[in-house]
Amino acid sequence: MVLEKEIPAFVSWFGPAFAQYLLAASLVAVIAAMLAWLAQSASVGPLVAGDRVYRGVIGGIGDLLRMSPRRVWALARLAIQESLRRNVLVVLGLFALIVLFAGWFLDPASVNPGKLYLGFILAATNLLVCLVTLILSVFSLPADFKAKAIQTVTTKPVRTGEIVLGRMLGFSLVGTALLAVMGLVGWGFVVRSVQHGHTLDDNDIAEIRATAKNAAAGAPATVVGYEGRTSLDRGHRHRVELGTDGTGQTDFLQGHRHTVTRTAAGGYEVGPPIGLLEARRPLRGKLRFLDREGRPSTRGISVGSEWGYRQFIEGGKLAAAIWEFDGISEGRFPDGLPLEMTVRVFRTHKGDIEKGVAGSVRLRNPTSGLQTDPFYFTAKEFTIDSLKIPRTVNATTAEGTRQVDLYRDVVSDGRVEVVLQCLEPSQYFGVAQADFYLRTGSGSFAFNYAKSCLGIWFSMLLVTALGVMFSTFLAGPVALLATLAVVMVGQFREFISRLFESQVNGDSTLVPGGGPIESLYRIVTQTSITLQLDETPAVQVMKAVDIALLAPMRLGAALFPSLSALGTGDFVAGGFDIPFDLVAAHGAETFGYLLAFFIAGALCLKAREVAS
User: Fold this and answer.
1) Residues 369, 370, 375, 376: is their CA dihedral positive or negative?
2) H or E element: which one contains 524?
3) How many other C-beta atoms are found inside a 10 Å radius of the C-beta of residue 115?
């Protein structure tokens, strides 16, 4: 999961975000009033146009302040009845068909089946719910205008704001009901699909005996453990390593592992999968690098990947990746540090694919420089390695090897450094800041899944409000296209922001390829986006023009809602708990957009000549 920036606390996020929201809303309101005044000035003159705009704004605000909750609810019920008349419940049958036949196309033997099933279900739910509410919202009011039914409503003591809010509320309730049903069915489908079990018999187990080198002279070889393989289930089987007491665990495969215990009857019991449906709560650190000579470096080695999310360190050298963790205390981690890590492997020669690439992890005191002896592991692709750092660890210094206390000798003022190195020459480890973390606990997967559905609910509310707003002054098909256009522009909001930041800071690693002019130049000259352009006067002028073009694009894109930014499916699929600060920030952002769309829709409907 890509998570380079820490999620800020809601209380610290809300103040600057609210100020930015007020500034953007004021600018949009002023621009809209100016455009309305210019349009009116062309027909009635500037003075009369100003009076009309002023009276329209004051009257619209008065209508909004005098709305009746009872009339809003009555109009919302009409919107719900209209949705049922349009057979909106058919979408539940379509979703049922998708779930029934999804097993034909989703491979349970994939690298991470839990992520595959969760991603599919959440994407299907999001698409269907938003699509249904979008179609309902954009065609409802235009159909009333065409059938003259809106005149029946406007002759009653109903205000335009109540009409708009009633439609938004009614269609949102329909979407909420559909989302609740789909979410429950999807949760059951995911849980049922990934749950499986293996068996392990005595015939599948072989003894591990001490070699003559390790055994005492003349003594018979003794059993030091057991190893074997489980039965085949869901297209895979696990390797098993057991202690002399018959307990142990399987290897980490397809995103999970199993615990194995010996029963009283003499057989073996393989537990349920661990790691597939989890809600980890990580404590992340800050990443920096050492180059192959051991000198500090801001970045690792590039292996030619166009997406520079992960940086690589060379094996067999002094190169290292170092994470510094803060907030470490004995009370928070009383039994040691539960380190979890995801390491990508880049091979310059094939080697033994099944074996993996050897690496080491050391802990270091950031103040005294005291380092623990290395903990060795074998990195494999698409595997989360777990390493439990005990309270007492070995440290080798000039005086020899001695045991040190983790919190007294290694942790300094709540800080500790974790040093990763690749041990095999000509091989590389690829890491990002989010790949190493300390696991502070686990949440409920069901509750985490519900929070992810809440993100879909936010998207559905925005799509519904957009559709109703555009339908107040556009025909149904045009309103549909306008809503889709706003949604599509919002999907690129984060990209445009990062691209502008990349151009201003001169850091092409944020978004390789440059702005529109530079991208056109690279296409014409067939220059790779990973290559830096020479800082000639022509290139500097080209980049300056890109900044000038991107500045209004960034300001404009910031006004559009980003449905992808509201989605939290990556957290659930990656097995991480969704922070409440993030949910609260998404909720506040959604409410801000809903308020703006409602006011805009109410004013547009009031300005429309419904009598005609």
Assistant:
1) positive
2) helix 516-525
3) 22
**Which has the closest alpha carbon to 14: 557, 566, 498, 582?**
582
Element (H, E) at 20: helix 10-44
Count the residues in the chain.
612
Phi-psi region of 294 (alpha: psi -120 to 50; beta: other; left: phi over 0): left
CB 586 within 8 A of CB 566: yes
Q: Which two tokens stand for residue 424?
A: 């095999």
Q: Output the CA angle 303-309-311, nearest 5 degrees.
A: 45
Q: Closest Cα partner for 130 from 522, 460, 575?
A: 460
Residue 167 DSSP SS3: helix
Question: What single-letter amino acid sits at 483?
Answer: T
Contacts of 288 (CB under 8 A, 6+ apart): 296, 297, 298, 321, 322, 324
Residues facing 430 on adjacent strands: 312, 344
Is the Cβ–Cβ distance between 387 and 377 less than 8 Å?
A: yes
Contacts of 495 by beta carbon, 8 Å cutoff, 6+ apart: 511
The pLDDT of residue 593 is: 93
The domain ranges of the chain are 10-194+443-607, 202-270, 283-441
3-state secondary structure of 607: helix
Cα 589 to Cα 167, 381, 585, distances in angstroms: 21, 37, 6
Query: What's the DSSP call for residue 331?
Result: T
Distance CA 406, CA 571 (A): 31
Residue 12 tokens, joined: 């610290």
Coil, helix or strand at residue 505:
helix
Q: Give the helix ranges, DSSP H, for 106-159.
A: 113-146, 149-154
Q: What are the Cα distances from residue 47, in Å, to 31, 52, 59, 61, 112?
A: 18, 9, 18, 21, 67
Nearest to 178 by CA among 134, 119, 143: 134
Q: pTM for this structure?
A: 0.86
Q: What is the pLDDT of residues 516-545, one digit of tens each?
A: 888 888 888 888 777 778 888 888 888 888
Residues forming beta bridges with residue 337, ordered by sequence position = 389
CB 429 within 8 A of CB 315: yes
Q: Quick: pLDDT tens for 167-211.
A: 999 999 999 999 999 999 999 999 888 888 888 888 888 888 776
β-sheet bridge partners, residue 274 = 257
Residue with tokens 């809503």: 483
Neighbours of 193 (CB within 10 A): 22
The CATH number of 283-441 is 2.60.120
The dihedral through the CA atoms of 132, 137, 142, 143 has a sign that is positive
pLDDT digits (tens, 9 = 90+) for 559-587: 888 888 888 888 888 888 999 999 999 99
Residues with Cβ < 8 Å from 494, sequence gap 6 or more? 562, 564, 565
Judged on CB neighbours under 10 Å (0-12, 13-18, 19+), 565 is middle
- Dihedral-angle region of residue 285 (phi above 0 means left; psi in -120 to 50 means alpha; beta otherwise): beta
Confidence label for 100 from pLDDT (cuts 50, 70 and 90): confident
Report the C-alpha gap between 415 and 285 in whole angstroms: 10
The C-alpha atoms of residue 238 and residue 251 are separated, in whole angstroms, by 6
Residue 2 has pLDDT above 60, yes or no: no
159: number of Cβ within 10 Å? 22
Q: Tokens 């539940």 appear where?
A: 92
Structure tokens that stand for 540 in this block: 């500097």
